[in-house]
């Protein structure tokens, strides 16, 4: 089993950017819809693969599900545990999603969010999710669309593309589900449409804030790019941002939305 490509980087929490988090009310609205449509169990054991700080599964624990969340980053697991209210049936543990400590068919649903883009052999992770899902259990893939494409980030990406780094992420680009859909289709899993276009939220950011994140290499794009090439693109981007109208203080309002890909075997 290869060591995660993320070690060290993924463990960085992002406390200054809480507005990027999916509003909990939206998560509940999403789960309500899935349950009402018969696409998600009303109770049972839920696996949160690559759980981070528990963003998408803590609300499920609060609703009475038995949650098992796994993440490769110790710090993330510690933060999830710290957020877990006493008395809930939830376990957050360190594990690689490519080797989940779950029995075959042990879970009534799998939830996963913003994971696959970090893993070069993401297909191995998907196969693990398939393995732990009991027959009929869904895999719910949640994404926050539109929260990341600031002008500074787009410029930085263009610079690195021009320098020959065409690929954004180690795994599939989170802007599209096409690769995931195709891979799961090959294993007999089909996507089921879920309407979430109304689950949007807005937040303000600035050029300076995006540059800070790029300096700290918080964002997942281009983590594989060597330091020298990354630094050169960043220096050029910093100069470009400073020369733009409004300079580094330039504000940008982002509109994000919750997107859900729901997969069922034989669906
Ligand atoms: C962008 S965060 C998303 C966290 C959470 N799913 C959420 O939506 O808030 C990606 C997470 O995937 C975890 N991760 C990356 N590769 C992993 C692996 N091979 N096994 C388990 N977790 C992994 C990282 O440590 C990180 O916490």
Form type: globular
Largest sheet: 8 strands, mixed
Count of helical segments?
Answer: 8
Cα(first) to Cα(last) distance is 31 Å
Describe this structure in words.
The protein has helices spanning 24-36, 58-62, 74-83, 122-132, 151-162, 178-185, 207-215, 227-243; strands at 45-49, 66-71, 90-94, 109-113, 139-145, 189-192, 200-206, 251-265. It is globular and about 55 Å long. Strands 1, 2, 3, 4, 5, 6, 7 and 8 form an 8-stranded mixed beta sheet that branches. It has one domain: Vaccinia Virus protein VP39 (Rossmann fold), CATH 3.40.50.150. With 267 residues, it is α/β, with parallel strands linked by helices. Strand 4, helix 4 (122-132) and strand 5 (139-145) form a beta-alpha-beta unit. The chain is built from 8 helices and 8 strands. Bound molecules: S-adenosylmethionine.
List keywords for this structure.
disordered N terminus, eight-stranded mixed sheet, globular, binds S-adenosylmethionine, single chain, Rossmann fold, 267 residues, alpha/beta, 8 helices
In short:
This protein has 267 residues and is an alpha/beta fold.
Topology:
Blueprint: H1 24-36, E1 45-49, H2 58-62, E2 66-71, H3 74-83, E3 90-94, E4 109-113, H4 122-132, E5 139-145, H5 151-162, H6 178-185, E6 189-192, E7 200-206, H7 207-215, H8 227-243, E8 251-265
Parallel strand pairs: 1-2, 1-4, 2-3, 4-5
Antiparallel strand pairs: 5-8, 6-8, 7-8
Helix pairs in contact: 5-8, 7-8
Bound molecules: S-adenosylmethionine (SAM).
S-adenosylmethionine binds at residues 4, 6, 10, 50-52, 55-56, 70-73, 76, 96-98, 113-115, 118-119.
